[in-house]
Design brief:
Blueprint: H1 2-20, H2 25-38, E1 80-81, H3 82-98, H4 100-105, H5 109-126, E2 133-137, H6 140-144, E3 159-162, H7 169-186, H8 191-210, H9 215-218, H10 220-223, H11 232-246, H12 249-256, H13 274-286, H14 294-310, H15 335-355, E4 359-361, E5 364-366, H16 368-383, H17 407-410, H18 423-431, H19 462-465, H20 469-482
Antiparallel strand pairs: 1-2, 2-3, 4-5
Helix pairs in contact: 2-20, 3-5, 3-7, 3-20, 5-7, 7-8, 7-11, 8-11, 11-12, 11-13, 13-14, 13-15, 15-16, 15-20
Family: Belongs to the glycosyl hydrolase 9 (cellulase E) family.
Active site: 405
EC number: 3.2.1.4
């Protein structure tokens, strides 16, 4: 009996060790980049690795006489929304810039560059003239009324644009930031392409600055899905990346002459870029390129306050945490804010370590190593160290969401069954089917659990079960750091 008890005790200890084991960050990194191949729109390349997807939306832009084939679907639907797509590209590019060495060491840099280029190639097409930018293809309302594979869809594919009569400073500037950041990524490997990206980035910044307005005021069809709350942050964001890409004083002056630094923010997202601006400005301060005084000091103070509240060392106004240790913002796709915040922390930890500096919070002095420890806790939660003992990255670990709210993943691959899935037929045969999706969308990060760490694995639970490119993109750089 004693031997039996000892064996049971040993098995229990081993199970604890397995639960507390460090996740395979390298595998998670590879899957996070692979995910973007599942989100591709257009004619798929010969080296496509996600084989259950096929060509789709090959006539996009035809209604406007332009080629808008390509780019990414934003989440679990089949619309191409330019605002989150540009942010996705910026996050991928920032990941590659900040953690390019680590990506290279893990043999993932070329895959990351391909993911970026799939987005930038589309943004170049969308920027059809100096003051014309196509910012949406497809209609969200008719698309959401159907449950179809992108390869089958027959919903309207109308093209929507901003121009000098219908401004969109926010989306123009975010597209500028995406192209400017990406130009840095390709500067060493393809200088001509990098220069082309930079030319378009400059034009888009000027366009957004010259013709002020919210894109979701100009494009009513975007308002119900990705409305913009302002454009000051995107213009500063674009200027920050253009300065980093060119070193030109004019862009630094734009930041210096701003009427706002954003102040302390509560999150960083596709709609709020102030924290990103503050991070890039703080980098310049740490490098000694500008002095921590005046408006520059305001930018850095705001960033420090954001980070202190994130790591629970703020002055009584920290970001809420769930009982299981998850940062919590809101019920709908909460993880998008987690991954974006972790890229901020990861990048700033790099900047602090390089300059030998620390983060000063109200109750503590925090080192770069401690920031990384906090990042690891949040990433581990996503990858399975949570009360549900479930990975919220699809395809990672043994237990992960099976009923992901994603049209393409939830319907049999067109390569297995070419019979057309109709608009309503998709709901009848696939959406309402109480079984795991037939296709595993590796690397997709679902919206995540609620404030009490509860998660329901159901396709109809779109607030928790739908993945999005804006969620996984920042995670690429974070995982590269940890891998």
């Amino acid at each position: 009996m004693a031997v039996k008890h000892e064996l049971l005790l040993l098995l229990f200890v081993l199970s604890l060790c397995m639960h507390d084991a460090t996740p395979d960050y390298h595998q998670a990194l590879s899957k996070s980049i692979l995910y973007f191949e599942a989100q591709r729109s257009g004619k798929l390349p010969t080296n496509q690795r996600v084989q259950w997807r096929g060509d789709s939306a090959l006539n996009d832009g035809a209604d406007a006489g332009v080629d808008l084939v390509g780019g990414y679907y934003d989440s679990g639907d089949n619309v191409k929304f330019g605002f989150p797509m540009a942010y996705t590209v910026t996050m991928l590019a920032w990941s590659a810039i900040e953690f390019g060495t680590q990506l290279h060491e893990k043999n993932e840099l070329s895959n990351a560059q391909e993911a970026i280029k799939w987005g930038t190639d589309y943004l170049l097409k969308a920027h059809a003239a100096s003051q014309v930018l196509y910012v949406q293809v497809g209609d969200g309302y008719s698309d959401h009324a159907c449950w179809e594979r992108p390869e089958d869809m027959n919903t309207p594919r109308n093209s929507y644009r901003i121009d000098n009569t219908k401004p969109g400073s926010d989306v123009a500037a975010e597209s500028s930031a995406a192209l400017a950041a990406s130009s840095i990524v390709f500067q060493a490997s393809d200088k001509n392409y990098a220069n082309k990206l930079l030319t378009h980035a400059k034009q888009l910044f000027e366009f957004g600055h010259k013709h002020m307005g919210l894109y979701s005021d100009s494009i009513q069809q975007a308002r119900g899905f990705y409305p913009s709350s302002g454009y000051d942050d995107e213009l500063l964001w674009a200027a920050s990346w253009l300065h980093r890409a060119t070193g030109e004083q004019a862009y630094l002056d734009f930041l210096a002459n701003s009427s706002t630094t954003g102040g302390k923010r509560t999150l960083f997202s596709w709609d709020d870029k102030f924290v990103g601006v503050q991070t890039l400005v703080s980098k310049l301060i740490l490098e000694g390129k500008i002095k921590e005084e005046g408006i520059w000091g305001e930018y850095k103070k705001a960033l420090d306050e954001f980070m202190c509240s994130m790591i629970q060392k703020g002055n009584g106004n920290n970001v809420k945490m769930s009982p299981g240790g998850m940062l919590w913002w809101q019920p709908w796709n909460n993880f998008q804010y987690t991954t974006s915040a972790m890229l901020i922390l990861a990048s700033h930890s790099n900047h602090l370590a390089t300059s030998g500096a620390t983060l000063h919070c109200p109750g503590a002095t925090v080192s770069a190593r401690q920031l990384i420890s906090f990042i690891r806790s949040q990433v581990n939660y996503i990858l399975g160290a949570n009360p549900k003992k479930m990975s919220y990255m699809v395809g990672f670990s043994q237990v992960y969401p099976g009923q992901v709210h994603h049209r393409a993943a939830s319907i049999v691959s067109i390569k297995k069954d070419r019979a057309r899935v109709t608009c309503n037929g998709g709901f009848d045969s696939w959406f309402n089917r109480n079984a795991p999706n037939p296709n595993v969308i590796d690397g997709a990060v679902v919206g995540g659990p609620d404030a009490g760490d509860s998660y329901t694995d159901s396709r109809s639970n779109y607030q928790q079960a739908e993945p999005a490119t804006v969620t996984t993109a920042p995670l690429v750089g974070v995982l590269a750091l940890l891998a």
